[in-house]
User: What shape does this take?
Amino acid sequence: MSTRATLPGAVTRFGLYLFAFSIPVSFVPAEFGVAIAFGGWLMDGAVNKRWQMGWHMFFAPLIFYFVWNVASALASPRPVHSLLAVGDNEWPAMIMLMMFWTI
Assistant: This one.
């Protein structure tokens, strides 16, 4: 098997291990692990054309929560600032939950 085909899986595994081993110690390296694992998942889909994702009923409240946050940010007095805050604060939780159901 070529390195090109196996690299995304190795990147995803490294990110998941980094997340698992660092979450009891600090949230910062755990966020890096989530971002690395998500990047590996994206690379696997782009390189190997294998998008590992299946629908789960838990996605419905997760999507509702995300849409509610975006809608409330758009309705705020400073929508751009609020949207940036939603993106800054919610991405780790969203990606962690999506990784749980997709990997």
Summary: The chain is about 80% helix and 0% strand. Residues 20 and 30 are 7 Å apart (CA to CA).
